[in-house]
Structure formats: C-alpha cells, structure tokens
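Data availability (excerpt). All sequences and predicted token strings are deposited with the supplementary files. A representative entry, Protoheme IX farnesyltransferase, is shown inline so that the format can be inspected without opening the archive.
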Amino acid sequence: MSVAALPLSKPSPVSTFLELTKLRISGASTFTAAAGYVAFLRGADAGLITTLIGILLLAMGSSALNEVQERRYDAMMPRTAGRPIPHGDISAGRAALVAVILAVSGFLVLLTAHNLTSALLGALALGWYNGFYTPLKRLSAFAVVPGSLIGALPPAIGWTAAGGSVAHPSVLALAFVFFIWQVPHFWLLVGLHAEGYEKAGFPTLVSVFGRARLSRLTFTWTCGTAAACGLLPIFRVLVSWPAEIMLGLGAAWLIAGSLPLLKEGQDAPLYRRVFMNINLFALVLTAAVILDPFFSR
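Structure token line:
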C-alpha cells in the first residue's frame, strides 16, 4: 500500500477538544483578564486563580459555540476547513453540549467565587460574541467595530472579580485600549485571508475599499492603538517608570513595524508579520500592566 493510500489517523479527543475550544485564543483573552485583576488589587492573591479559571471556561465555551454556529462557513474556507466539526471529528450536537457545559461552569465559578457583576460581564461577553458579533459578520464588513467590545470585556471582568467597579475610569481606560487593539488585529486577518472569507460569503473591507486602502486604514487604527496606551499612565493604571517605558517602547516598535502597510504591493507575508507584531504588542501591554505593581514597590 502506498503512503498516499494510507487512511488518515483520527485526531485524539484531547486535540479535538483543544481545537474546538480554541485554547490559544481563549488563553490570550484570559491573560488580559489577569491584567484587570492585578491592576485593581495592585498585586495578586488566590482569587486570581478562580478568576482565570472562570474566564477561561467561558471563553472556551464561547469559542466552541462559535464553531457550531459557523460550521457550514468554516467548511468553505481553507483556513478553517480542518476544524473539528467540518472535518467530522465531532458532531455539532456534541460540540454544542460541550460549549454549554463550559460556559455555564465558567459563569458559576465567577458567581460563586467572586461576584454577580463579574459573572454578568462574562455572560455579556459570550452573548455579544455569539449572539451579536457572529451573525453581524455575515451582514457587514464593519462588524468588528462594535464586535470589538469582546476585547474590552476580559480586563473589566478581572477588575470586577477583584472587587472593583466597572465604572471606574482606570478600568475604562484599560478596556478602551483593548477595544481599539481588536480592530486592526482583525483587519490584518482579513487582509491575510480575504479570499477565503469572501468565498464563504463574508463581506470584507478588501471588497469595499481594496487592499491598499484597507492597509492604510489598518495602519491608522494601529497608530490609534499605540496612542490610546497613553491613557494608562493618565488614569493611573500604570504608575511605575519601568512599565511605562516598556509600554512606550512596545508602542513605538508596533508603529515602526506597521509602516510597510503604507507602501504599495502588500502581500501575505507582510500581513502575517504585522499580525504577529500586533499580537506580541498585546502581550507586552498585558505584561506591563501586570508587572507595574511589582515595579512600583
């Protein structure tokens, strides 16, 4: 028997679960929630663990539900055709059951270990992503702008789980930075995979503006993300000079790395590189907020 004729091995249940729940993306949003928790307490305690568990469960449940909702469209796109449901590794019904169990568990962890506010914000994040943003993507190429509330909510959940008020100016400033960040992050993904999105029937800004104009618009929002970071020292999210320098250098690096978006002839490697840069910047931003209380001691 030739190698080409050998049957493909079925993924293990563990790998199917991790792919269904998008652990890397879910983990990234959970990490930003840690920034909100530490920023309020100006430190960390055992409650940080239950906060992260609750948010991670909610994020994984939301991701799994999203894959149930978009399974037909995922099957049409090369980037997502290998996901567990369109690939046949798990049925939509079982995936939906997994999503519900994870989401309810995450809500209950936040409610019982912390407070109603953090649990309700977690439920809002799931409802906004799965009930509003996911269907809106089928209707508008600009869906990511209101949909970016999803990026703003995890730090607010962490802040309120630690005992803070969701209306406090400091957490609003932190949430706003992550809100702005979410927009160019998604538009870079669109620039990288526009053909696949359009094949599956999703409207994209590449079809609205063209790739060159989208690149300039993305650069503008990237600069806006860097500029928004100036709110964090103003509203006392950051108070130590090492954290401020760390974030300032990260913002300057982000802008410098995005400058090629203004040139003619953008290609996939460029979008991929800038996409990786903006993801790394989110890591630097989150790390600066988490480390700030320890730098200021």
